[in-house]
Design goal:
By secondary structure, this protein is mostly helical. The protein folds into two domains: 410 residues, MFS general substrate transporter like domains (Growth Hormone, Chain: A, Up-down Bundle); 56 residues. It is built from 20 helices and no strands. The longest helix is centred in the first third of the chain and has 32 residues. The two termini are 27 Å apart. Keywords: Membrane, Transmembrane, Transmembrane helix, Transport. It is found in: Cell membrane. InterPro entries: MFS (IPR011701), MFS_dom (IPR020846), MFS_trans_sf (IPR036259).
């Protein structure tokens, strides 16, 4: 039986599929908020848990690394044993990690808790798969797009909400509140989300999972410790060589596997690999900025830079990025229909480069930083919305969920690389009082600008889709304009 027939029969027996979507949205939102809620309070956690800046950065990096590894693994297990069952298990893991983080009394326990929370990355492919199996065909692309958009929106909202939560309560509540949301989502998923009868035969191979984990750990450890150990030291060179060898081995094993975690044939499609390359580079810039700009803003002005901002104030300074990203997301559909999604993916990172030029060389006033974050929302907003459209256009309808999930996951991998790289640059040559030197931030933001410029150049490699093909794919998937959701059933 084809996947379309199975989806049709499933949706007929379950007419209230938007209830399922609400549960999935709550699950994705809880995961997305935990990505960014802690970033404005890293300095607070550093002080409370008596650690240094390089170590506390792993509170962010460990979460992104764990999510990068667990996303394809849990998605593949869900295909085999049942997506609803694995969704509940993933939410339980997210809740356990939140509970452990809320009561953590040492940096080691906090990092372990964040690794457990990173298992929540499995929410993405599982939710996409449930949508693909349970929703009417014409609703799939729009629902997947909305769930993917929650990641970017959640990242911005998390930074803004962190301040008021900490001011009214304390930073532990940044974990208690998501814990409550996650537990409610797990109960709702168990009671309201139907178990899909769709199963993918074949065993779950452990070797690809081990190789994926190994090369990512080697790479991130080298990037984060490069300054401390010396970039030319044997340990760093050895880790980088090991990461390269293990990454090649992982690609070879996945390509030959009968049941791969990641379908390399799909990933080799020109429109897919080029768009994913842009996603990786954009992820480096976005997550590193969200991770380190709040710390820059919260640095006491007596240090010669920074504004001594509170957590709430630093979140508000970053608010323009969420506002402009939301506005651009609305406008991107008509613009992509007129100029093409590729044009937006090229223009988006090119615009975002202005952000890093401003942050590196014009950060003496709050209004300058606000302008920079607003520009960032425009640039990355165009890139995110258009990349989703390009991925949908590039793959068969039945691969929409997994392809969109991998694009989002690759952004997360980029984010973990960006956080580790930025930590290494910012913490190099710290001042006697332990604060980073202003030059560390200047060099770090300049490097992120170069990476984002590389994203714009990489976007030029994306094949141009002929308008007739775009219209055909949009008609097939129920998309009125690139990236927009059809709001009602066709009559």
């Amino acid at each position: 039986m084809s996947s379309d027939v199975r989806r049709s029969s499933s949706s007929t027996s379950s007419p209230h599929y938007w209830v399922t979507f609400a549960v999935l949205a709550a699950s994705v939102a809880a995961y997305a908020l935990l990505q960014s809620l802690v970033t404005p309070v890293l300095s607070t956690i550093q002080h409370d848990l008596h650690t240094d800046q390089a170590t506390v950065t792993w509170v962010l990096t460990a979460y992104l690394l764990s999510a990068s590894i667990s996303t394809p693994i849990l998605g593949r297990i869900g295909d085999r044993v049942g997506k609803e069952r694995m969704l509940v298990a993933t939410l339980v893991a997210l809740a356990v990690g939140s509970l452990l983080a809320a009561v953590a009394s040492s940096i080691g326990v906090m990092i372990v808790a964040r690794v457990i929370q990173g298992l929540g990355g499995g929410v993405l492919p599982l939710s996409f798969g449930i949508v693909r199996d349970e929703f009417p065909r014409e609703k799939v692309a729009g629902a997947v797009g909305l769930l993917a958009a929650l990641l970017a929106v959640g990242a911005g909202l998390g930074i803004v909400l962190a301040g008021p939560i900490v001011d009214l309560l304390d930073y532990h509540w940044l974990f208690w509140i998501p814990l409550v949301v996650t537990v409610l989502a797990a109960v709702a998923a168990k009671l309201l989300v139907p178990e899909s009868p769709v199963r993918t035969p074949g065993r779950v191979s452990l070797l690809p999972a081990v190789l994926l984990s190994a090369w990512l750990v080697c790479l991130l450890l080298a990037l984060s410790q490069g300054t401390a150990w010396g970039w030319g030291s044997g340990r760093i060179v050895g880790l980088l060589v090991a990461a390269a060898v293990l990454a090649v081995a992982w690609v070879v094993v996945e390509s030959r596997s009968s049941a791969p975690l990641i379908d390399m044939r799909m990933m080799r499609r020109p429109a897919v690999w080029t768009t994913n390359l842009v996603a990786l580079l954009v992820g480096v810039g976005l997550y590193a900025t969200f991770g380190f700009l709040p710390e820059f803003l919260q640095t006491p002005s007596a240090a010669g830079y920074g504004f001594g901002s509170s957590i709430t104030q630093s979140g508000l300074i970053l608010l323009p990025s969420s506002v402009t990203m939301f506005i651009v997301g609305i406008a991107s559909g008509p613009l992509a229909a007129r100029f093409g999604a590729k044009a937006l993916v090229v223009v988006g990172p090119a615009v975002a480069v202005v952000t890093f030029v401003l942050l590196a060389f014009a950060h003496d006033s709050v209004w300058q930083v606000c302008v920079a974050t607003g520009v960032m929302g425009v640039g990355f907003g165009f890139a995110f919305s258009a990349m989703s459209s390009l991925i949908v256009e590039a793959v068969p309808a039945e691969q929409t969920g997994v392809a969109s999930g991998m694009n989002a996951n690759i952004r997360t991998i980029g984010g973990s690389i960006g956080a580790a790289l930025m930590a290494s640059i910012v913490t190099s040559g710290a001042r006697p009082d332990g604060l980073p030197r202003e030059a560390g931030y200047t060099h770090g933001f300049a490097v992120l600008g170069v990476v984002t410029l590389a994203a714009a150049v990489a976007a030029l490699l994306i094949p141009r889709t002929r308008p007739a093909v775009v219209e055909e794919r949009h008609a097939e998937l129920g998309i009125v304009a690139a990236g927009t959701l059809v709001g009602s059933e066709p009559e």
